[in-house]
TrEMBL record:
The keyword Cytoplasm applies. It comes from Candidatus Kerfeldbacteria bacterium RIFCSPLOWO2_01_FULL_48_11. GO terms for biological process: regulation of translational fidelity; tRNA processing. Its EC number is 2.7.7.87. This is L-threonylcarbamoyladenylate synthase.
Length: 205
């Protein structure tokens, strides 16, 4: 039986938040509403939790993006720079994932061994409240099987995972989300901004 907890798109009740935090602390996987679609959250610093997430998504070929609650939390996992600082000040919170050089605390499993990590402060208040309450970065990969379309309702998420043996541990149901494109992705590790993926925020390279 799937563990489903109703919430609103703008607020996560304290009881639901406590359950989500407990699930994450135990290495579990939580489905939650992001600013673009439903996402899968695990502790981004836990090799074991990341491994479980890869099994659920059937994903091995792409690094996992991360959300943080603040710039202070970002600096625990990544090295900032002037290019990134300008973008952060202008567009965060919002659908902009910025690629930084990672710090040693970031497990290789999260980035598939790459020296970089993609991070954003999400526009979704629920997502921000979740990562703030947890106190550590969380993954923000889409709640779907690798290579399939994003899911904007929990019914679609449940349908996609129902036949799998490995499934998320907790589902935060915020109803049907607005179909916003996935976040813009930019790389700020070089001398110039490099647009990796176009999205809702348009940035000149």
């Amino acid at each position: 039986m799937d563990d489903i907890v109703p919430i609103s798109q703008h607020e996560i009740p304290s009881a639901a938040l406590k359950r989500a935090i407990n699930t994450l602390q135990q290495g579990g996987v939580v489905v939650y509403p992001t600013d673009t679609a439903y996402g899968l959250a695990v502790d981004a610093l836990s090799e074991e939790a990341i491994g479980k997430l890869f099994i659920i998504k059937k994903r091995v070929q792409k690094p996992l993006p991360v959300i943080v609650a603040s710039v202070e939390m970002l600096r625990t996992i990544a090295v900032t720079n002037p290019l990134a600082e300008k973008l952060m000040k202008k567009y965060w919170p919002g659908p902009l994932t910025i690629i930084f050089l990672k710090k040693e605390i970031v497990p290789p499993a999260l980035t598939l061994g790459l020296p970089t990590v993609g991070v954003k402060i999400p526009d979704s208040k629920v997502a921000r409240d979740l990562v703030r309450a947890y106190g550590k970065p969380l993954t923000s990969t889409s709640a779907n099987l690798s290579g399939t379309q994003n899911n904007y309702s929990l019914d679609d998420v449940l349908k996609q995972f129902r036949d799998q043996e490995a499934r998320p541990d907790l589902y935060l149901d915020a109803g049907i989300l607005e179909e916003i494109p996935v976040s813009t992705v930019v790389d700020t590790t070089g001398s110039k901004i490099k647009v990796i993926r176009e999205g809702p925020i348009h940035i000149a390279a």
